[in-house]
Amino acid sequence: MHYLIQPASVRDAAVTVPGDKSVSHRAIMLGSIAEGVTEVSGFLAGEDCLATMGAFRRMGITIERPAETELVVHGAGLHGLRAPDGELDLGNSGTAMRLMAGVLAGQDFAATLTGDTSLTGRPMQRVTTPLTLMGADIESRDGKPPLRIRGNPHLVGIDYPLPMASAQVKSAVLLAGLYARGRTLVTEPAVTRDHTERMLRAMGVPVSGRDGRISLEGPARLRACPVRVPADLSSAAFVILAGLLAAEADILVRNVGVNPTRTGVLDILQAMGGEITLENPRNLGEEPVADIRVRSSALRGIEVDPSLVSLAIDEFPVLFVAAGAADGATRFTGIGELRVKESDRIAAMAAGLRALGIRVEEFDDGAVVHGGRFAGGEVQSFGDHRIAMSLAVAGTVAVGPVTVHDVAAVETSFPGFEACLEGIGADIRCVREDSQ
Ligand code: S3P
Description:
The structure is a single chain. By secondary structure, this protein is an alpha+beta fold. The protein has twelve helices and 23 strands. It has a four-stranded mixed β-sheet. The chain has a four-stranded mixed β-sheet with strand order 2-15-17-16. A four-stranded mixed β-sheet has the order 4-5-3-14, with helices on one face. Helix 3 (94-104) links the parallel strand 6 and strand 7 (110-114). It binds shikimate-3-phosphate. Shikimate-3-phosphate (S3P) binds next to helix 5.
């Protein structure tokens, strides 16, 4: 399956994008181990979160889905999960695997977590090391999935300095900490998304967090509460950039999560000259949201502040496209984590931008992108949803048609992406190879 994007004018529009992936995963996981019924609205019906839903159903949790984006999770309490009858396949989702490893560490049964080719190539020692210290018994294939997790109902809390800024690892340790005796303390080298902490607090677990030191006391029981999922800023970022790059557009993206641990992308685009304003800021349950207005802007190259990296970790592919269209060079440093995402995102974006005529210098943990004008051409997604969507946005302002190959993975995080881009005036067609 590929995208064919033809030059067309992005224009004024008001759109919504699907629910936040991180919050949707957590709503299922925490709802499943809470006491009571968790009603979820705005759920992201993408493949990653559906994989999490399938896995918890296979551990005996009843999850109703009265509408596409609404769930009713019947929590079974901290000790209510049952051994699944086979391997749990989490598809493409690193978040599902790492956070579930934390939950499974505290069970009195064993389970195996596996995934697709991308996920089974990703590093898992980052979670198996702390979870083993807490008392779980985990086998892996040289630190990679499948993970065979033999839970231990007698976990003990740890004081764990995270070796890398990762909300997934922080969350895995905190979720295991719910089951452990005593205090679990995680120290982060840089602030990462705090959705787990917010949802745990909403479910009645006292979580303290100051200066990147987050702790809770186990064992801790969760009380179900409604979860309203905001629209995903990581998905909105594609629309935001398409609007900034357009010749003349004013685009409103409604009801987007603007948790300050996620908004690095807005700071970086504003520093590049992007005209972005947050309107009608408010709270949706535990999460701050706003309507984001974007007006076409001339972007300029900058040195991206490395302290913003963990706050924009998923938006670097689209930021590479912003840099490719900017006036002058943009330097990215401290982004080595991008090499172990769904693909090696530094290499993938360097290849994609070069294929569109942009000069890119690539380093181990960074890149310099020399802005210019995108030519038409053929680019690869490397099976990575965010690479596919970022290069599609480049196509909206290229001087000729752009073909993005291998785009099926877009379904993991942004069902309806093509329709959304069409809604702002882009000319994008999704072509199935067998329908040509
Ligand atoms: C996520 C954390 C990030 C991010 C991922 C979602 C989460 O990963 O890239 O898409 O929901 O906790 P890391 O924590 O590994 O950086």
